[in-house]
Specification:
The chain has helices at 21-35, 55-67, 83-92, 106-136, 146-153, 155-184, 190-199, 212-222, and strands at residues 2-10, 38-47, 70-73, 96-98. It has a 4-stranded parallel beta sheet, with helices on both faces. By secondary structure, the chain is an alpha/beta fold. It contains 8 helices and 4 strands, in the order E-H-E-H-E-H-E-H-H-H-H-H. The radius of gyration is 22 Å and the shape is globular. The two termini are 32 Å apart. It folds into 2 domains: 2-111, Rossmann fold; 168-222, no CATH class.
Length: 223
């Protein structure tokens, strides 16, 4: 059994929380030892509480998916209020275990995510109502020329292309050790590599299956 561990701490709350770094590592290590598992990699997310972005979680989920590992976290109870974590976990399709709640599954997270999503929608509704009220008062909102300026500069399309390229680059970097292992086994042809990647359940950056052309693009991306 292969495991990718994900630790999450706050620079403010770590010292007085049950989710301190040492406590999390201890809980995860106990689970690893009980299952005789091996840890592929540990990811540590240090959050300020002001920015709702989890780059380490995204990388952890991706690595777990391409290596066929299980994502293991220390505690699920506190994360039940973290919409970003729940929705990313729910949509990833990655198997996971919470050391404090080992019987939790995709159904459990699905319910938590629905509750979190409901709250997000409620916030969105209140925001829209506030904006509509401001418009009725005659207040001008936003920049009416903003979208036109972006189209003129071509920034919107560029940003989209860059996002796709960044995702593909990250995916390729994660697969570099896999390709090296296949080469050590004598698998070097495009068709052979595609067959092995598909057999191991490793998907393309867009979630598809591998073909000779997509393997060729992967190798080219790795230089």
């Amino acid at each position: 059994m292969k495991i990718v561990s994900y630790l999450r701490v706050s620079t403010v709350r770590q010292g007085r929380s049950g989710l301190g770094l040492d406590a999390q590592r201890t809980a995860i290590q106990a689970y690893v030892e009980s299952k005789g598992a091996s840890v592929v990699k540990e990811f540590l997310e240090v959050e300020s509480g002001k920015v709702n972005v989890r780059p380490q979680l995204v990388e952890a989920l991706h690595l777990a998916k391409v290596t066929g590992s299980v994502l293991v976290i220390a505690k699920l109870d506190r994360l039940s209020r973290n919409a970003a974590f729940l929705l990313a976990l729910k949509d990833s399709g990655v198997r996971f275990i919470a050391a404090d709640m080992p019987d939790a599954n995709e159904f459990t997270v699905g319910i938590m995510a629905l509750v979190a999503q409901q709250e997000r929608e409620a916030i969105s509704k209140r925001t829209k109502e506030a904006l509509e009220a401001a418009k009725r008062r005659g207040q001008v909102l936003g920049n009416p020329n903003g979208a036109a300026a972006l189209r003129k500069a071509g920034k919107g399309n560029t940003a989209g292309v860059q996002a796709i390229q960044s995702k593909a680059d990250a995916h390729a970097r994660d697969l570099r050790p896999v390709l090296r292992a296949l080469a050590d086994e004598g698998v070097t042809s495009l068709g052979g590599i595609a067959k092995e990647l598909n057999a191991r359940g490793i998907q393309t950056p867009r979630g598809g299956i591998w073909h000779k052309t997509s393997v060729s693009n992967l190798i080219a991306r790795l230089g």
